[in-house]
Amino acid sequence: MDIDDQGVAFNEKVLLSDIVDLAEICKSKCDTKYLTTLLYMSLRFFNIKWEDINQFLKDVGFMIAETSHKWATMFIKGDYEEFSNDLRGGKQTDSFYDMFPEIEADAKAFVVQVCSRKSGEFKALHLTQFIDEKYYELTGLEKQTGDDFIRTERSCRVDLRKWGAKFEANSQRPYFEGHERDDMVKHRTEFINYFLANKDFYYTITDDDTPKWKLPTS
User: Going by fewer Cβ within 10 Å, which terminus of the chain is more open, N or C?
Assistant: First the structure.
């Protein structure tokens, strides 16, 4: 059987967003330099053009081709000590949500609420903005003009995947599949009922044509 008959169009541009998400997961587990060098050497092995390699590496958030070539050359020539000593691009040791578990709980509740609206246009950027607001509210810090989001949109896309979301092929809008196994239905019902019973403790959004934030009342 032809493996290409499995229903995944790997050459479609929309797949790039899935590659980016996987790259973010990999970077949280392994040194970015090792990942980039491995990918760069593999692409060069298949005679992919330098310009295409460079653009692809930038698109997925890895080091550029020039830097990758430097490390690949160092590795191939056997200078392993220098190659392995530079820890640039290493994985982070502390998870954002380990430091701010309350933000994770609020973010999950927010996602469940907005994704349940069939007419909604929820995107990962909205989660990014929500987390940013919650972070500055919790820490009491003041966001300065030009500051980046405290958690990137790419990281939030990975969060959504970890929480069970999938992305529509065309719009890249996240959604949750209706898993109908008894244990999944039970878990999902308990999860939603918990937040509904404690909704006064969380930020919610009005259900009208012009949604507005509703502050916690407890």
Answer: N
